[in-house]
Amino acid sequence: MFSCLIVSQSDSYNEERSRLFQSILYNTLKDHPYTKKQLQYEECIIISNADFTLAWQTVLNLECSGFLACCGFGDSEEIAMENAFEKWRKRKNGIY
């Protein structure tokens, strides 16, 4: 089972929120590599192949702090990313 997280970037103009965002990512993911990509004209961070528990913990920590984060799972990395993106797009558009 593969997992993928898609996280909206923090408000870069708000230094306190930006520090909180980076702290949550650092403390939850530690040294897990992630890549920053742009999705639909919005800066996002895509985190692939995170451990199932680690993926959910990261999403919960970010969501509880007011950030938009979604997690998708699938039998391949591509399917996991598609599932995560679909959830992220719906959340971004206010569809829960």
Q: Segments where pLDDT lies below 50 for 5+ residues?
A: none
- CATH class reads Alpha Beta
CATH fold name: Alpha-Beta Plaits
> What's the β-strand tally?
4
Protein architecture, described:
- The chain has a single domain, classed as Alpha-Beta Plaits (2-Layer Sandwich).
- The chain has helices at residues 15-29, 52-64, 77-92; strands at 2-8, 35-39, 42-48, 69-74.
- It starts with a strand and ends with a helix.
- Helix 1 runs antiparallel to helix 2.
- By secondary structure, it is an alpha+beta fold.
- It is built from 3 helices and 4 strands, in the order βαββαβα.
- The relative contact order is 0.26.
- It has a 4-stranded antiparallel beta sheet.
- It is globular.
Chart the SSEs and their pairings.
Elements: E1 2-8, H1 15-29, E2 35-39, E3 42-48, H2 52-64, E4 69-74, H3 77-92
Antiparallel strand pairs: 1-3, 1-4, 2-3
